[in-house]
Amino acid sequence: MRIDRLYVERAAEGRPATAHILSKLKPRETILIDDYQDYFSRRKTAYLEKRNKRNVFIALKRGAMVKAAPPAYGYGTSDLHYYYVHAYNCVYECEYCYLQGYFNSPDLVFFVNHDDALREMQQIADQNRDTRRVWFHAGEFSDSLALSHISGELPYYWKFFEQNPDTWLELRTKSVNLSVLRSLPPLRNAVVSFSLATEPQAAVYDRETPSVKQRLSAMRRLRDMGFRLGIHFDPIIYADNFSENMQLIAAQIRATVGYEAVAYVSVGAVRFAKDVYREARQNYPDSQIFARHFIQGADTKMRYIRPLRLQLIETAQAALKKHGCPEEKIYICME
C-alpha cells in the first residue's frame, strides 16, 4: 500500500501493535506527533483525495472504544449488539459508503490501545453474562479484514473470545484477505460475515473491492477451514432487473457455499445520513443510486419511499428462501 506520510503518536511508540504496523509499512515520510486529532480531519480533505494521496496515523483512541450499535443492527432481536473501534477509514471506495460524510478526512487511522477496548468489552460481557447474549462487531469504521495483516489486532481479540465463549464476535468485510484468519482456530462464537450484492450492483458501486465471485470463493475457503459465516445484502440498490439478478446471486451462494454453512443473512435497502447523502451526491453525481427519489425518514436518514424499500427487501427474501435459505436465518437490517 502506497503511503505518502505516516504520523505516529509519541504515546503509541513502543507498543507491540505499533511495532507490527511499522514493520509492514514503507512510507515516504514519518512524522512524530503528540495527538493525531491535531492533524486528522482538522482541515477538511475531500473524500476522493484518497485516489491520489494516502496518509496513515498510528494513534491511541481516546474515549469509548466500544459503543452500542443502533437498533436492528445485528442478528438476534433479544441480543445486545456493540461495535468496537480498531481503525478509521477504508481502502475501498463504495459509492454508498457512509464514511465519505462521517469524517473530514479519508486518511487511515490505526488504533493500537487494544487493551483498552478489551477491558471495556470484558466489563460489558461480565455485566450481561447471565441475562442476554452479547455481540461485538468489527468493521463499522473500517473493513475488518482488508488491512488485518498490517493492523495486526485480530489475535488480541481472538484470545478474548476464546476466553469468553458465551460472547459473540462478528467480523464484517468485503475483503478476501484471509492471511491472518489462516493462523487462527475457528471459534464457535465467531462469525465472518461478507457484504454481498448482485454482481451488476457490485461491479458498478463497490469500487476497488474484490468481485462477488472472489468473495464467494473466500467464503468457501473459510467454510472448509471450519469458520462460521454470515452474509449482508445491505445496502440493496434499486435496479429494473434486481429480481432476476437476486435470483442469480442466491443460487450462486447455494452452489458455492451452501446455506447450511451460513449462520444468518441480513437484507436492507440503501440509506444515508443527511450529511453522507449530500457528500455522496457530490462525489458521484452520475451514480444510478440516486435515480430513484429519496425522502427523509422519521430517523432523519434519507431513504427510498417505504413501498419501494419493502418491495426490494421482500424480493431479496423470496429469492433467498427459494434457493434454500431458511426463513429464520434472514433478518431485516436497519429498517
Salient structural properties:
335 residues, alpha/beta, pyruvate-formate lyase- activating enzyme, eight-stranded mixed beta sheet, five-stranded mixed beta sheet, 9 helices
Strand content: 15-25%
Low-pLDDT residue intervals, each spanning 5 or more residues: none
| Overall outline | globular
How much helix, percentage-wise, in residues?
25-40%
CATH top-level class: Alpha Beta
Named at the architecture level, the CATH assignment is Alpha-Beta Horseshoe
The residue-averaged pLDDT reads 95
| Main sheet overview | 8 strands, mixed
Write the CATH fold name: pyruvate-formate lyase- activating enzyme
* Strand order, sheet with most strands: 4-5-9-10-11-13-14-18
Order of helices and strands: EHEEEEEEEHEHHEEHEHEHEEHEEHE
The number of helical runs is 9
